[in-house]
Amino acid sequence: MSELEMESLTVMYVSDYNGHGDESLALAAASLANTDGGLIYLGIEPDGRVSGLRPHRDDGTRLVRRIAQGTHPAVAVRAGSHRIQQTRVLRLEVPRSAQLVATDDGRIYGRRKTFKGGFENRPLLPYHFASRLAGSGVLDVTAQPVPEAGLGDLSDLERARIRQAVLRFGGEPDLQALTNAELDETLQLTVDYGGRRVPTVAGLLLAGTPEALTRHVPAHELAIGDPDGHQYHRSPLLMLYELIEQYYQERVTAVNIHVDQHLIRVPSLARACLKESVTNAFIHRDYGRFGPIQIKWGLNSVTITSPGGFLPDIDPSRLLNADPVTRNPVLATAMMRIGLTRRSGRGLDHIYGGLLKHGRMAPSFTQSTAHKVVVELSTRPASLSLLTRITRAKDRLGYALPTQALLLLSQLPPNDPMDVYEAARLAQCDTRQARRLLSMLDHAPADLPADPPPIRAPSAATIGRQDTEALLNFARKHGRIRRRDVINLLGLNGSKATRLLQALVNQGRLQSVGKARSTAYSIIHSAE
After folding, report:
1. How far is CA 474 from CA 88, 460, 501, in A?
2. Does pTM top 0.70 for this prediction?
3. Which of 141, 260, 393, 476 is the most buried (most CB within 10 A)?
4. Where does residue 392 rank: exposed (0-12), middle (13-18), buried (19+ CB within 10 A)?
5. CA nearest neighbour of 400 among 442, 351, 356, 446
């Protein structure tokens, strides 16, 4: 090993000559485990100078045991001896923990970026705990009671607004006939706490007074505006929907576009597209992390930013196929029963479809980070070419195109057939579904079978040569291939995709890069 990763949130340098005992390394491992996991290089100074290991340092076996003994729950570190600049160092791989990890003496630390651009391990404060657990899908902040609040912090006006929303958005009709106390209990706006009813965080978000929200849920805030400035609001959610609707009516325009014999009315932004995007932001935001939800009305797009990154099991490149999960189940369930979100959990279909069917590109999530989700909704003029292709496909088929067909059609070459593996990647589906979509859109290659049998082979020896070459070509084109790419391309499950990649490694055709969840595979050029 000759290359050394730069120090970052997931890479840490530790000197072996500056009096760092095993206890300090346990703290370092706990800090990484409480953040995103990563690597510790023992034998490298903080300034990047490779100083090496003490003479009697072993291959890390004893150190791994001491770190496990010094952390609770135990952090299972993997150690390996490496040479960097001809000097021996230890490389410790630290997994991300689903639980908060403390050291033997009760310290709970995390990895943070400093204001000067460096990195350090710092104690986690109490408000970090909720954010960290919510980000792991372990804790629902919105289900928590707020003992300092009382029933007087909930507003009868907001309860009436909930009943009106049930009627307007098609929620559960029975909610309208409930008394305030019954409504609170049914939607879990209040819970029993020490023999009395107190509001939950979800209750304050949906029915709390602005004063109570400011006092008890300080992370809740909405910033909405345009390049000229923003307005900040701490109102309950249904009041914010009305405010956003007002912004929508003031800023959205529509044009009529002729396509063949059709006259299509195209808004600059579909109302359902904005509503679903905002609802996702409210439901999935991290209420333990400070910072407002931001709605920026720009010249060519509307950008919605929500504090808190994607949950660990969510792959941003395959959102349409992701299982419907949420950081805040109690709030999500209440909003579903009111009618503000879909029972199917497939609101993303309406976000994608609201853009694509009006001749615009799919929403972009490329600005998202580990600590925020950013969705950009295009308001550029509609593409007449795309509208024409969608309309003619709809006329030919006799029904509206599904979202994944729209997504694929927006990126298909005008006349040429598309490779099925590329189609699977673009449509966020497996190759079997991609074949059907290509056939539906009349863009299937001439030799494409109508409905091939599923690929079941777990190794490179038993899958087709064509599919193996497709994986290798993908790795060449993109520089590397990951397990999720194999799942997308071939429709395999996770374990089979892993075995296939390992088989190609054993054959000397691929080499692994990185560890654990960051593992990728690149071409070994000498073997090609």
Report:
1. 35, 15, 13
2. no
3. 141
4. middle
5. 356
